[in-house]
Design brief:
By secondary structure, this protein is α+β, with helices and mostly antiparallel strands. Helices cover 41% and strands 18% of the residues. It has 2 domains: 2-111, no CATH class; 119-224, Arc Repressor Mutant, subunit A (Orthogonal Bundle), CATH 1.10.10.60. It has helices at 63-68, 97-111, 119-131, 137-144, 148-158, 163-180, 193-204, 208-213, 221-224, and strands at residues 2-4, 10-14, 20-27, 30-37, 44-48, 52-59, 79-81.
């Protein structure tokens, strides 16, 4: 949740984090915008209206198939407006955060696909969550007994990215934890500091030092990330 309590709109920048989101922007307990995002593969500008509150629900890799029953590849690096009837958002209690969270959870569970998650896909999700990008595509295949071609086909169908790209995004997300705390020297996952700087700049448009400097202004996301 983010509040803009000023009389002016705020310009923010969203950076890749390996999640897609459902977002509600409100003012005076009324919905201004209701949208779904795809994965971000590089930085994305986002404007927050004056005197508004933004609520967001982060969703993981298996959610498109096994929760929402739809792909989000078509909204890769993009935003799509949602009808307020979707998840009964027009009936959400926007004045109480705890109630809103509960309502959101209830509606998501109502549309949850009633089928068992295949072992290969469950292992893939669990492994990627555990490794946070610090693993090669070959090692992923070897550990879950699923070929790279099969994994890429699945990720491209539902998320719009390859396994290699997804791992790179995850690795950047983990790097934000260090950048937020002022550590510009990667502990692992990069060949050296120049490689680290290049990868961060490729995905965010900024150097690690610039991200750290702007985390209270443009890059508010960095303040909200946490270790999984």
């Amino acid at each position: 949740m983010h509040k803009n309590l000023t009389s002016k709109f705020q310009r923010k920048t969203i950076v890749p984090d390996s999640y897609f989101k459902i977002v509600i922007v409100t003012r005076n307990d009324k919905v201004l915008r209701y949208l779904i995002t795809g994965l971000w593969t590089f930085e994305k500008p986002f404007t927050i209206p004056s005197n508004s509150t933004v609520f967001g629900c982060r969703l993981k890799m298996l959610a498109p198939e096994f929760l929402l029953n739809r792909e989000v590849a078509s909204v890769l690096q993009d935003i799509k407006q949602l009808d307020l009837k979707y998840l009964n958002a027009d009936n959400f209690n926007l004045s109480d955060f705890a109630t809103l969270v509960k309502q959101w959870e209830t509606e998501l569970l109502k549309i949850k696909v009633q089928k068992e998650i295949p072992g290969s896909k469950l292992r893939l999700s669990q492994l990627l969550d555990k490794m946070n990008g610090d693993i090669s595509t070959a090692e992923v295949s070897n550990q879950i007994y699923w070929t790279n071609r099969q994994i890429n086909r699945y990720l491209n169908k539902y998320l719009g990215v390859s396994l290699k790209k997804y791992l790179n995004i995850q690795k950047c997300y983990q790097a934000y934890l260090h950048i937020r705390d002022g550590n510009f020297y990667p502990e692992k996952g990069y060949f050296d500091q120049p490689h680290f700087i290049r990868e961060i700049k490729k995905h965010t448009g900024e150097t690690p030092k610039s991200l750290h400097k702007s985390q209270n202004d443009r890059f508010i996301q960095l303040k909200r990330i946490s270790k999984k």
